[in-house]
């Protein structure tokens, strides 16, 4: 409810209450002027003056629920939550249908650390107005404080759908998702003593959140419990590749290849690490097989082209690299493909094509550097 709506309703109720309490016409006029002055002060953000005006009216009409609600909301706006709470409680005692008063009361309980009462009031407010973004967002904040992360996510998503740029609600949503992640990690940790699959799942969760060392430890534990569990050594090798530990990656990739020799990703992985280690002759058959198993793998085509180039088979390098351009590639790899094509066309004596790919390479690299600097 806006301040203007509150004030207008307040005036109407005040007039009715004046009749019931047998106010004189002069008294009713005086109260209406006080209400208008309080409203104007509120609109102008002169909160102390507005509060004094509503207090003056409440001394004459103590059973006016909108008066208590307005005074409570002003105290809330002043961050005087302990003073707001009794006013809002009194407003609801006099008129339980004031859902705005109920929601702000819940928020004030939250601000003062009284989480059970905050939850009670905001759950009622959301039940009365299920699509209200503020009510949902505030309830989500309370759920986060109570450790109820899954229901918090549901409420905060409703709020953010209506207010996608709310830093407050987005921050609490991030905390809620982090809380769920922590709970899942705890559940997996409790299961991991007897389950290599739990270690694997925990490792994947750590890897997804960027905790590489923790992920590597969990992968190693999973592999120790079940050396033939598919996927563990491959994922561990991927982590080693990210860390630039190519020798360790080769060892783990070879173990994965022994477990699942026909899985296309495993042929690619061992070929990739051998290429990075400069062992093109060894890498070639693995990369050829990876491409024959999955011709859509742009990464495999890039490494195949790189290996052909290292072996001075420039025409085959150019063919593989051109095919890689037709596949989905991450920006870093796309830049590398154009660089490799520039070098291949130079070796083939095709200066125009070489120059074209050199220009593309320089532009893409400059764009990527600019984007990297712009990131927080």
Q: In terms of topology, how is this protein built?
A:
Blueprint: H1 3-20, H2 25-43, H3 47-60, H4 65-77, H5 81-94, H6 99-111, H7 115-128, H8 133-145, H9 149-162, H10 167-191, H11 196-208, H12 212-225, H13 232-242, H14 246-259, H15 264-276, H16 280-293, H17 298-310, H18 314-325, H19 331-348, H20 351-374
Helix pairs in contact: 1-2, 2-3, 3-4, 4-5, 4-6, 5-6, 6-7, 6-8, 7-8, 8-9, 8-10, 9-10, 10-11, 11-12, 12-13, 13-14, 14-15, 15-16, 15-17, 16-17, 17-18, 17-19, 18-19, 19-20
What does this structure look like?
The protein is mainly α and 376 residues long. The chain has a domain at 1-95: Tetratricopeptide repeat domain (Serine Threonine Protein Phosphatase 5, Tetratricopeptide repeat), CATH 1.25.40. 81% of the residues lie in helices and 0% in strands. The chain has helices spanning 3-20, 25-43, 47-60, 65-77, 81-94, 99-111, 115-128, 133-145, 149-162, 167-191, 196-208, 212-225, 232-242, 246-259, 264-276, 280-293, 298-310, 314-325, 331-348, 351-374. Helix 4 packs antiparallel against helix 5 and helix 6 (99-111) runs parallel beside helix 8. The longest helix has 25 residues, at 167-191. The protein is elongated and about 105 Å long. 38% of the residues are buried.
């Amino acid at each position: 409810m806006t301040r203007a709506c509150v004030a207008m309703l307040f005036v109407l109720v005040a007039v009715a209450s004046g009749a019931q309490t047998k106010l004189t016409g002069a008294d009713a006029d005086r109260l209406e002027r006080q209400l208008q002055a309080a409203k104007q002060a509120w609109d102008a953000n002169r909160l102390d003056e507005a509060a004094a005006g509503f207090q003056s009216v409440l001394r004459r009409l103590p059973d006016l629920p909108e008066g208590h609600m307005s005074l409570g909301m002003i105290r809330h706006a002043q961050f005087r939550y302990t003073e707001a709470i009794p006013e809002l409680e009194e407003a609801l005692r006099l008129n339980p249908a004031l859902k705005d008063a109920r929601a702000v009361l819940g928020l004030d309980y939250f601000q003062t650390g009284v989480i059970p009462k905050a939850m009670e009031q905001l759950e009622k407010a959301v039940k009365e107005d299920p699509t209200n973004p503020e009510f949902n967002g505030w309830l989500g904040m309370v759920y986060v404080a109570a450790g109820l992360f899954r229901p918090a996510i549901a409420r905060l998503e409703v709020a953010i759908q209506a207010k996608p740029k709310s830093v407050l609600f987005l921050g609490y949503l991030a905390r809620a998702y982090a809380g769920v992640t922590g709970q899942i990690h705890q559940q997996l940790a409790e299961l991991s003593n007897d389950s290599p699959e739990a270690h694997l799942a925990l490792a994947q969760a750590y890897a997804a959140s960027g905790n590489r060392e923790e992920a590597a430890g969990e992968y190693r534990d999973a592999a120790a419990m079940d050396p033939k569990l598919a996927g563990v050594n491959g994922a561990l090798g991927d982590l080693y590749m990210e860390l630039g530990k190519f020798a360790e990656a080769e060892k783990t990739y070879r173990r994965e290849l022994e477990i699942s020799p026909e899985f296309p990703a495993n042929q690619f992985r061992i070929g990739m690490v051998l290429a990075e280690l400069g062992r093109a002759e060894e890498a070639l058959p693995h990369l050829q097989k990876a491409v024959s198993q999955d011709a859509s793998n742009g990464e495999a085509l890039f490494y195949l082209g790189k290996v052909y180039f290292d072996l001075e088979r420039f025409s085959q390098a150019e063919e593989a690299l051109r095919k890689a351009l037709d596949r989905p590639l991450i920006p870093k790899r796309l830049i590398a493909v154009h660089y490799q094509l520039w070098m291949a066309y130079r070796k083939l004596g095709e200066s125009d094509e070489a120059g074209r790919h050199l220009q593309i390479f320089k532009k893409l690299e400059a764009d990527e550097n600019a984007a990297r600097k712009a990131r927080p």
